[in-house]
Design brief:
This protein is mainly β. 13% of the residues lie in helices and 39% in strands. The chain has a single domain, classed as Sandwich (Immunoglobulin-like), CATH 2.60.40. The termini are far apart.
């Protein structure tokens, strides 16, 4: 009887134990793709740029604003930022822009805006970040008094 019981226990172990050793598997193919991504935005509008005084025998002092910034995420090398205004500035006046640049890129410093695209930052590679925008408005004393709002368009494009 002892042998029969041992045989029964061994048979049960082999029958049920082998079930836990059995394995079954299958595979899946997972497609992954990262497409070119370039997204660009600017914060709100800068404050008003108002020239209302000058020193005797001098042109009026320029006024500046550095309260806004641009942000981007880009995974494509060789980008640049260009800028323009919707229409030319009045005679004897200038609206200039200066964009801080990412560490691997080059800012062209103060650039006079016109109604045609001007290079502002070149050599932008794979990067993300936010950087300051500076505006400077200047006028010579010969300029006629005026007020206007200019629309500045900044675009990230290929170098």
């Amino acid at each position: 009887m002892k042998k029969f019981l041992s045989f029964l226990v061994l048979s049960a172990f082999l029958a049920f134990g082998s079930l836990s050793w059995a394995a079954d598997s299958d595979t899946q193919d997972v497609y992954c793709e990262l497409k070119p991504i370039t997204v660009f935005s600017v914060s709100g509008n800068p404050g008003p740029l108002i020239i209302d005084q000058a020193n005797p025998s001098e042109d009026p002092q320029p006024v500046t604003d550095g309260s806004t910034w641009y942000s981007f995420s880009n995974n494509v090398p060789g980008k640049k930022i260009v800028g323009k205004i919707n229409s030319a500035m009045p005679q004897y006046t200038k609206l200039e822009i200066n964009l801080n640049a990412p560490p691997d890129a080059t800012s062209l410093g103060w650039v006079e805006l016109s109604d045609g695209n001007q290079n502002l930052v070149t050599g932008i590679n794979r990067r993300k970040g936010s950087y300051t925008i500076f505006y400077r408005f200047s006028a010579q004393i010969e300029a006629e008094p005026f007020s206007t709002t200019k629309t500045v368009t900044l675009t990230m494009t290929d170098n």
